[in-house]
Amino acid sequence: MPSRRDMITGAGGLAAAAASGLAFPALAQARAKVVVIGGGSGGVTVVRRLAARAGDQLDITLVEPKPIYTTCFYSNLYLGGFFPLDALQHDYALVAKLPGVTLAADRAAAIDRDRREIRLESGATLPYDRLVVSPGVELDYASVPGWSKEAETLMPHAWQAGEQTGLLKKKLDAVPDGGLIVMIAPPNPYRCPPGPYERVSMMAHALKSTGRGQARIVILDPKEKFSAAAVSAGVGAALSWHDRVAAAGHSWRCPKRASFDDVDRDRFRNLSRRRSRECHPGADSGTDRQGCRARR
Fold first, then answer.
1. Residue 290: which of 94, 119, 80 has the closest Cα?
2. CA separation for the pair 294, 44 (Å, rounded)
């Protein structure tokens, strides 16, 4: 099985080949066929770069079953009340209009490397000269005793954006004044190290701004330090949190005086929205910054 590094290297080499006009294997007069599995930021970034460099000289198929892509990045701003959910959601209309690109609204079921073709769940097959596999992450439900796919409706993780993001927001909105939220931060390594602390920062703001300043957030974290700790500490100070270190982790309380009054809200919103537009898969931009810079 090829490693993730092999796949990334292969994708980079494919983009370089398209840019330099090098011939593809199994290419006579027909256009080389490129299949990209996964319509997240990684997969769409490859599609956009190839289409921009090769024009219609490549036959590119993007395989993605979902009609809407919901970003994980900036989802915390939705929890904090700065973004509506639809600001994180993007369809593939612009991607499908790129030169040489076809969107296959289906799920890849199997890869036949010997025959160089993809079998889709619908039963259709897609031949390829080059293949990019970028399906995203899946959760290992058995990794945490007592947790399961059924339990994620009661204890939403929102590590995969979309339905879980909306569910977590509903849970947050239902927390009463004086209620308790427990956040479990995983041990290293994990995706987006400052994510848990960024998330509770936005949760604390949502609680305070809706009159629930007596609600309490407890973080259970086995790590002695974490990425962007100084930034998170600065946010905590700006919110006037009382930081108490206990044996179980960090217990933070959001008192009535907690405030974002010193933050330029309009500038913050405008900057965040501009970056969100740069990063979503359908961004009509000449750069490839969407996806690689902000994927979480």
1. 94
2. 13
Q: Which helix (H) or strand (E) holds 230?
A: helix 229-238
pLDDT of res. 250 = 38
The C-alpha torsion from 16 through 8 and 228 to 225, rounded to 10°, is: -150
Q: Edge to edge, what strands does the sheet with 101-104 contain?
A: 101-104, 58-63, 32-37, 130-133
Task: Please report which helix (H) or strand (E) contains residue 278, including its range.
Answer: helix 265-279
Window from 72-76, 128-132, 192-196, 241-245 with minimum mean pLDDT: 241-245
* Cβ-Cβ contacts under 8 Å for 247 (sequence gap 6 or more): none
Give the pairing of strands 249-253 and 242-246.
antiparallel
Amino acid at 88: L
Q: Which two tokens stand for residue 48?
A: 């956009």
Q: Which residue has the tokens 């929205």?
A: 273
- Stretch 104-124: mean pLDDT: 97
Place of tokens 């899946």: 138
Is the pLDDT at 274 greater than 80, yes or no?
A: no
pLDDT at 188 (0 to 100): 83
